[in-house]
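Much of what follows relies on a compact textual record of a protein's fold. A complete example follows; check for yourself that the lines match position by position.
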Amino acid sequence: MAGAGRFSSAYNSGVPLRPRLTGLLGAAAIAPALFWLGPALAGRLAPSFRDQGDFFYPLKLYTADRLRAGEIPLWNPLSGAGEPWLANGQAGVFYPPSALFLLSWPGAAGILFLLVHFAIGAWGMRRLLKQEGVSESGALFGGAVFVASGLPASLSAFWNHFGAYAYLPAIVAIARAGVRSRGAFLGLAALVGLQAMAGSPEICGLTAVIALAVSFLPRPDPDRPWLDSRKKSPPRTAGGFLLGLAVAAWMLVPMGELALHSDRRGPLPTAEREPGAITLPELGAGLARPRTATRTYWLPSIFVGPLVLAVAAAPFFERDRRRLALLLAGIGAAALLLAAAGPPGSWLRAIPPLDRMRYPEKILAAAVFALAALSGLGLDALRFRAGGRTLRALFPLIAAAALALALATPGPVGFRSAAAVGLASAAALAFAGDRSQTAGAVLGTICALALVISFAITGRSLFTFVPDAALRERPPTLDALGNLTGRVLTPPPRDLSRWVVRDARFDREALSRQREALGGYTNLLSGVSTVRTAAALPTGAARTIADSIDGSRDPVRAAGPASARVLWSPLRPGLLPSRKVGEFFRAPIAPYRPRLSFVRSYRIESDPVRAWRRVASGEVDLAREVLLDREPSPRPPPAPRSPILIARLAEDRPERIVAEIATNASGLLVVTDLFFPGWVAEEEGRRLPILRADGFFRAVALPAGSHRVIFRYRPVSVFLGAGISAAALLTILFLGYQGEPVR
């Protein structure tokens, strides 16, 4: 303990920086984010890089529209025959920062959403490094690596993963400190709950592993026995995680239910797990050089630069921090191996729960976290190692090298000139601000600011924007769809994406094409119901239906049983793009099963996948027959020769459907909406058993007469999750009110 205190004070020897300058240095880590996003905020633009314009914005805006209307969005009826919405972690229905999208300016909401998470990440890394006794320049250096290097800049296009990534260092900082007070315990629970609500189970899992690992190596505290801290830190950390996950149970319990009814119930095929995995040499090149071409397409940049890699090696030469440095290095090395293509990474990714994860590049978040922490520690190690005279002699040479590093960074002349001016100003500010500062402190400050400027330049090309109005602008081509009573069949996403990016960048034209083609989740903003869903965790039914349509010899006919009424495509037969941009093919689909139908004949097929395939192959007469999973009760008698039927959809809301029907014969009311736990059918207060129709839809047996059947979505998982979350919040309030330290 004495060594740790001596080491910390040695690092911070000399007169401290002026408070104002200290504050500026602390905030400088998010300067690249302000450089990337600030002009767009002033110009009323919205970020559109990769999945933002066609996926995350529609998710957030659809959710905000429902909340603004006074509804709790439990169900999305517009995608994939319906899907549970509270279970969609990417929607973040009750995630606090998502409240920004209630603003009338969606572009500003998206930019502020990103800036909030950039700030959380920078604050968390600063806290972690400062509690290790790192100087302001070291904390800035590590914070810049964590929030402004290639991976976080690329990850910001995926709001759920970036949101979870931002909480990682703050959670680890509390675990590293040993969770020695009740306030720390409650803070850990709150941060874990927020991270879970962000909607990235993969990064939450990485955070839990890292936090538990560092909890076995708590930071020495001279006021508390070392063995006592080491024994109690892991249980306290685990308890904080459990309480935090309970806070997020309103989303996690429905998400777990959805996972049981999705393709993640079992291991994913190897071909779906491996996209995004790149070799170790490619990973090394990507870390060292900006925008290195690799086989990855999920993260276009993982650049940190050779300066960071060199500085990150310095802590291993310091005895007092060697154990922490070795732990961080082990975390980084394990993450690189897990994310790399080929063995042993591919072998490890076949082990549960990793065998259910797509895009192994997500694991690189742990590697960048480790590099950021090591580089922050390393900058101080270099300052501490070199004597004052040596530093003063080497200062001009090292400052020139830092300038050359920034100036040699690829970018326009204006950016490079700004880098030179910024570094010169930083040097002048450091010397003029306090002449009693050591040369090492000045050098550390300049190196940190050089890194910030370098990241600002290299990351700028990763961000593209569209006018704010383009997000909700309805393409005129969609008017050709008219008022459909069924769903729309669109081309497979991979085929459609090639058309979207043909002669277009990720800007307004690309977004316009996505909106026209109903790509991603853009159908939510147009109010058009589609057969496909863009969900990262789709229901097993939606996945099976889409795969069977794409694999069919006659995809149009195969889509008819899913209530697909029209084919909407910019691709000619054979997947050739139309000669004119904006030219779409609207082809009617027949035969098709209407969303609401009444049939009198049925057959039994208990296996849902086999039932759907039989229906999609044309084996079933959609106008007269349906496949059920079991015998209806009561069993309908034979129909009369001249049946009379009047049916209509009296009410059609996301969580409530009312069907009115009058018939002189018994039969089955079929609704081509997803059969999913939580849906109940009632008539005059009496529950009706819901049968599986055609494998994935709903049906109820009705006798002759007039009926008013109400379908309601009342999922037990939502009420159970809400109850757990309420109990967890009450626990936090009670413990906070007590105000006593955990013992």
